[in-house]
Amino acid sequence: MTVRLRLLALSMLSVLAACSAGAPATDPVPRPTPVPVTADPSLAELPPRPLPYPVFETVAFRRAVENGTRTRSGRPGPNYWQQYAEYRIEAELNPTAARLTGRSTVRYHNRSPNALPRLAVHLYQNAHRPDAMRNRVIPITEGVRLQRVAANGRALEMRQTGEAPGYRIDGTILSIALPEPVPPGGHVDLEFAWSFTVPPLGAPRMGQDGEVFFLGYWYPQLAVYDDVNGWHTDPYLTNAEFYMGYADYDVSLTVPEGWLVAATGTLQNPEQVLSATVRERLDRARRSPDVVRVVTPEDRGAGRATARGTNGKLTWHFRARNVRDFAWGASREYVWDATHAVVGDHDADGRPDTTMIHTLYRPERGWTDWARYARHSVEFLSELLWPYPWPHMTAVEGLIGGGMEYPMITLIGGAPDSIALYSVTVHEIGHMWFPMMVGSDEKRFAWQDEGLTRFNQSLGMADFFRGYDRFAQAMDRYAAIVRNGDEVEMMRHGDLYPIGSPAFVIASYEKPSLVLRALAGVLGEETFFRALREYGRRWRDRHPTPFDLFNTFEDVAGRDLDWFWTPWFYETWTLDHALGPITPAGDALEIVIEDRGLAPMPARVVVTRADSSTERHEVPVEVWLQGARRHVLRIAAEPAVTRIEIDPERWFPDIDRSNQVWEGTTGS
């Protein structure tokens, strides 16, 4: 079974086999020839339907199109530009005091056409300060303490006003007024020295429990300055995630000897920090198809898992190029498994490439199959989308209830069984594509990375567990919030959802995964995946907006899809197709199809006859877009009809399936 056919490997296999007999292998849902449909003006009880309005681009996006940095075809414009940075970081972790101390230099390249008199820098750890604004309960610390801020070698002082040169701190944003503006094509060299207490359990997406330390959003990071909205200085309120620029990282991390460290990037000094036994086992994992136990419970500690250090410490040196963040985890309690994944030809040299797979976890977890789950995730997604490009994919255990992604590394905790562990693993690894490679703004448009990833996760689960239906779970949760009247639209800033409500999760994860599946149903899988991969190709290592995604799909599909984007992304309109009266009419049978919802979608009807044959009919979406609420399908009465069903493969997120099936005879 090819990857693109796995979308159908769910609970409807038997129906699909019957309904798609003889269909081309590249498109398991044949594109039916629409049956003539006639409106019945006597059936007018349903209220008039609203029609979808066009997608209106923002003023900022229109200005970017006029400036030549974006296009309405979904491609980056000829004048597209993007900022870049080079980080050199030295940090030391004191686990006893739970204290991180760091120094960094950053060369920030201004590739924009604008001179920049000011810079914005994220201090995410300030979300833990007692006086910080936030939209969830988290542990309280003193936040970040800055010992030095400098620009081009000149130390800057904190100032309460905006006068230059100097800096001020507003929550999680550090604003720097430079001595001289950074000219277009120029750069500025920044220096930072800082420290903070690593927050305990309960911190979102990172923290420590005394045994495991995971350092995410842990260093002063330049905010994104892009061609559409300029500086992105939305504060970190702990719910909505991140929008990050691409950069190179050279990072040295000092920890106690005997502690294993996993991080973004490639380890530069394995001979200085890893024992000879561990290095030999890693070499074996690069060659062997098996999972290798690199560090067992008996191997832990200095002189066994790691080398002996100086004054009881070791410094691990990592480098990563063109990634949007750097994160790392450390523990003396971890065991370590490794294998490798075959990912396809990402460097286009005609040979299949591989990447290392690492899993580090406390042995009491018993996650001995975890490396196999991670390997399948990388291989599946590399085939579904495009090849994984980095030298390793690492998963470390601990601290949080679900998972959190960073380039080449993810933190995962709280999975009680194999299904849950694989599920969160394939989801977090899926984020290596969205948003790590395709760098969307997670804060303002969470669905653009979470929704795409939940969709891909669902396909991975169906493949790994032979038909497991993750889409059905998403549908149950989506339908529940619709029934409760608590749904909120998807095109909403991630920090502006009702606190304590499932609305954010539904709008960012579950509903968009269903909407993407519906789009695959509308376009056909071949066209859908061609558009999804083209979106990735165009915007890899760049910053796409939702308009760029919408426009790419329309460009590849060759059709206007505003009727689809508006109801599903900008509104909370729902779909409810139903079977109305089914009556004989001479040698024909008339089937009334009702559109009881607000979201217009094609109505696909499968008719089963007494001789076990099936036939497909479709009410095209254009019928509903003309304002109709009911239409009549007229089909032959013989052979006798035994079953009629709308959308048996469940491509579309219809909120009431109870009104979509008719079984019996026509009485003729």
Question: Any chance you could write out the topology, listing elements then pairs?
Answer:
Layout: H1 13-19, E1 37-38, H2 59-67, E2 84-94, E3 99-109, E4 116-122, E5 145-151, E6 154-155, E7 166-170, E8 173-182, E9 187-197, E10 207-208, E11 212-215, E12 221-222, E13 225-226, E14 230-231, E15 247-256, E16 260-263, E17 266-267, H3 270-273, H4 276-287, E18 292-295, E19 313-323, E20 328-331, E21 335-344, E22 353-361, H5 370-384, E23 392-397, E24 403-406, E25 409-412, H6 418-430, H7 432-437, H8 447-464, H9 470-484, H10 503-523, H11 525-539, H12 546-557, H13 562-570, E26 577-585, E27 588-595, E28 603-609, E29 614-619, H14 621-625, E30 630-636, E31 641-646, E32 661-663
Parallel strand pairs: 2-15, 22-23, 23-25
Antiparallel strand pairs: 1-30, 2-3, 3-9, 4-8, 4-12, 5-6, 5-9, 7-8, 10-11, 11-20, 13-14, 15-19, 16-20, 17-19, 18-21, 21-22, 24-25, 26-27, 27-30, 28-29, 28-31, 31-32
Helix pairs in contact: 5-6, 5-8, 6-8, 8-10, 9-10, 10-11, 11-12
